[in-house]
Design goal:
This protein has 248 residues and is α+β, with helices and mostly antiparallel strands. Helix content is 45%, strand content 12%. A six-stranded mixed beta sheet has the order 1-2-6-5-4-3, covered by helices on one side. Helix 5 (130-158) crosses helix 7 (186-202). The chain is extended and about 85 Å long.
Length: 248
């Protein structure tokens, strides 16, 4: 599991260790680091012990709190300007550089969010009620998972990594091929799918290590005010203003 500093908590790390899952997190800013302490593994690389917090979270039951171990052993490294906390304790199996390279892949989470919000146009939700907003988000996520499934099947057939397949190109090809499978037999549809997978596999994503993006909004703001009242009320207001102007 890869996540930023907001997920670097004692409770989540214990849950991962219990389930046999390894994780790499950026250290939370409220925690302080002292590389003079612990078991030294190398430069800015050591084994540390975290104690269980005395205060039990409100969402956790007393029974669950008692079962959680009193301390856990973790590894803390400073690499590429970031202090990372990980469950990979053996430096011979996972080097400090490998931990830093692994954490860089966390950026793929942001890329996936961009694919959902920008490519699939979920950055603006159009429903009004909370129930319909939930359904709108659910439909977007359903479509996203189906597209990723096609990408995974393509990668499996052509022996490539799923991340090498272009998400946007996959959508464009699905739209281009969807009309061809409506009036064909099952055998013909299989041939069309093979052709689709072949086309998707040909469009690879270039490897761009160390890529960064500015956190700015690209869409220009409109000069008009936001619609804060029902459209009909605003229309009636415009009609009244027009009629008063004509009388004057």
């Amino acid at each position: 599991m890869l996540a930023d500093c907001y997920y670097c908590s004692y409770w989540l790390l214990v849950a991962l260790i219990t389930k046999g899952v390894d994780g790499v997190f950026q250290r939370h800013t409220l925690r302080k680091s002292d590389f003079r302490r612990g078991i030294r593994l190398g430069a800015r690389d050591h084994i540390i012990i975290w104690k269980k917090p005395i205060q039990r979270p409100k969402w956790m039951s007393k029974a669950t709190y008692k079962k959680i171990p009193a301390e856990i052993k973790l590894r803390e490294v400073k690499v590429k300007g970031k202090i990372l906390i990980t469950t990979f304790l053996n430096p011979k199996e996972v080097s400090k550089k490998a931990i830093g390279d692994l954490y860089l892949k966390r950026w793929l989470i942001e890329v996936d969010f961009r694919a959902i919000k920008t490519v699939m146009q979920m950055d603006i939700l159009r429903c009004k009620s909370p129930e319909m907003v939930e359904k709108e988000i659910a439909v977007h996520l359903l479509g996203y998972n189906l597209i990723r499934t096609v990408m995974a099947e393509t990668a499996a057939q052509w022996k490539i990594f799923p991340r090498d397949v272009s998400f946007k190109t996959t959508i464009q090809l699905l739209n281009a091929f969807r009309g061809r499978g409506l009036l064909n037999s099952e055998i013909k549809i299989r041939e069309i799918l093979e052709e689709l997978f072949r086309a998707i596999a040909r469009n690879r994503v270039n490897d761009r290590p160390g890529r960064v993006e500015p956190r700015v909004v690209k869409r220009r703001k409109s000069k008009y005010s936001l619609m804060m009242k029902p459209r009909q009320i605003l229309k009636e207001k415009l009609v009244k203003m027009a009629s008063s102007c004509s009388l004057n």
